[in-house]
Structure formats: C-alpha cells, structure tokens
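Holo prediction. Input below; ligand is NAP.
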Amino acid sequence: MQVQEKIFVAGHRGLVGSAIVRQLQAQGWKNLIFRSSRELDLREKDQVNLFFETSRPAYVFLAAAKVGGIWANKTKKAEFLRDNLLIQINVMEAAYRYGVKKLLFLGSSCIYPRLAPQPMKEEYLLTGTLEETNDAYAIAKIAGIMGCKAYREQYGCNFISCMPTNLYGPGDNFDLESSHVLPAMIHKFHKAKEAGLKEVELWGTGTPKREFLFVDDMASACIYLMQHYNGQEHINIGVGKDISISDLALMVSKCVGYTQKIIWNTDKPDGTPRKLMDITRLRELGFEPRTSLETGINLTYQWFLQQEISR
Ligand SMILES: NC(=O)c1ccc[n+]([C@@H]2O[C@H](COP(=O)([O-])OP(=O)(O)OC[C@H]3O[C@@H](n4cnc5c(N)ncnc54)[C@H](OP(=O)(O)O)[C@@H]3O)[C@@H](O)[C@H]2O)c1
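Structure of the complex:
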C-alpha cells in the first residue's frame, strides 16, 4: 500500500472506520476517500458500482456494516442479515469488477460456535451451533469470509478477512438502547454518578467472560494486515485475555467514579458464556496490541466526557 494510492474506508464515521482513518492520516496517507451512508448506500448495487467506476480505489477497508448489541441483534435479525449481506456482496463485486488491488473485510468473533473451545482458534469456524441471539448477524459475517475466499479462488482477488473481538474506544456508540456492553456501562455509571443514584442495574448475571480490544489497536492491526498479510484464512484480532462482566463493571465504575451498588438483572440474556480469541496467528504475523484495558477505558471515558460537554 503506497502512500499516494487511493484508499476507500467504508464506514469511516463508525467506531472502527474512524480509527482507521485517524491512523492512516497520522501515518501520512493522503489519498483517502469516504462516503457516509447518506451519500452512498452500500446496500444499493447501482450506487456502489457507480462509485467504484468513478472513484477507482486501489485499497478497500470494509468497515461498514449494520452493528449492534445483544438486544438489537436479537430483535432485528432480518435487518442484520439483509443489510450486511447486501453491503458485503455489493462492495466485493464492485472491488472485483473495478480492479481493487486488495480488500480487507471485517467480521466478528460471533462467527464461532456458542460453545467453541476457548480460546477460539480460526479453524473452529463452522464446527458447531451459533449463539442464538446473534445468529443472523453471524451467518452474514460467515458469508463475508466465504466471499473473500470465493473471489480469491475464482477471480484471483486479494481479499483478506479479519475477525475482531469486542471493540471499544473513542467514537463508540453510547446509546443505552443499542450500545455494546462496555460503552453502555460507561454511560450508565456516569448518569448514575451525576444523578446521585444509589444503585445501577446491569443486564444478566455478570458471570460471562469477554475480551475487549481498544479500537486504535484494532485500526493498527487492520493497517498491518493490509500491508503484511495476503492469505486466504481469516485472522483473529484480540488481546488474548478475557475478563468477567462483573469485574469489568467494577473497573468501569472505578474509572467513572461511581461508588454505589451494582444490581444484576438475571431475567436479561447473558449471551455466550465465554468468548476469547486465540491470537496466535496474529502474533506470528508480527502484530501485538498495546493498550491495557484500564488505559483504554480511561481514554474512552475522557472522550465520552468531551462529547457530553460539547453537546
Ligand atoms: N464494535 C465492535 O465491538 C465490533 C466487534 C467485532 C467486529 N466489529 C465489526 O467491525 C466493523 C465496524 O464496526 P463499528 O463498530 O465501527 O460499527 P459502527 O460504529 O456502527 O459503524 C458502522 C459504519 O457502517 C456504515 N454503514 C452502515 N450501513 C451502511 C450502508 N447501508 N451504507 C454505507 N455505510 C453504512 C455507517 O455509516 P454512517 O455513519 O455514514 O451511517 C457507519 O459508519 C463491522 O463489520 C463490525 O461487524 C465491530
């Protein structure tokens, strides 16, 4: 990937896309192109083809997707399946037709079976039943991995794919209806601290274990893979360590400065009991994430506070 070459970051306003843009710009890439979903709806084949025909990007980071937390995934399965399949296939087909040199597709750790052995290795894909709460989203992401392989095999396209673990950081979605667990905790504890509440309710039992990767490390990994990886197998991106949701809650509440009680609503779903990525392949390729969970949460809370002030 040469500095003057044209790079399309699809989903540049999102958590991951914005971090990729920040890093590319910081590293000196100037020829970046992006479009919001209003300007270019990637679900619309004709719009996508016209965009690729006229813009001719050499590299594509495919970080545009319909994304959400447990509740959104569970209640809007048709949308998660349809939108993601359309975005992926339209972008891959246009990338093939208009001679893109390389494309990186972003999947998700939910592609692995619900009860996959831990930590989850890349080869566990399609070895068991998916988690029911986000199976539609997972199937779309699995189709994306297959898309990269199929275009590679049949047309010789250099399409690669990576599977990030749970991400968080500046630019995250803090909306309490649709956000992921970590930004939701930051928002809830912050609101509770401001309002002087005596307790905060969190979903589930607190026992599931999850892994969290700071989004700037994710962006570095994406750029690293774009530069150093040309294989057909998808690559896990994570930190290789997990934490229980209840311990995470303690860490976030400490960072936010909320010192009152935490109540667990066990009527709400927990999701998969444990999800930890095996990142041996990523490490063997020479990449290691840098940001500790504590530092990342602090940086994210600072960003959240700035947004609150500027509102
Ligand atoms: N966040 C995580 O924890 C996580 C974990 C694992 C994997 N991932 C994967 O990482 C990728 C990026 O996720 P994210 O968290 O950055 O998501 P995000 O913050 O929700 O951003 C998604 C982006 O996709 C764009 N988009 C959605 N529908 C579109 C459409 N029809 N046409 C054009 N653009 C569209 C949005 O554009 P506008 O803003 O212009 O509407 C937005 O910029 C996704 O593939 C996701 O599956 C994320």
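The two ends are 38 Å apart (CA to CA). That is the main takeaway for now.
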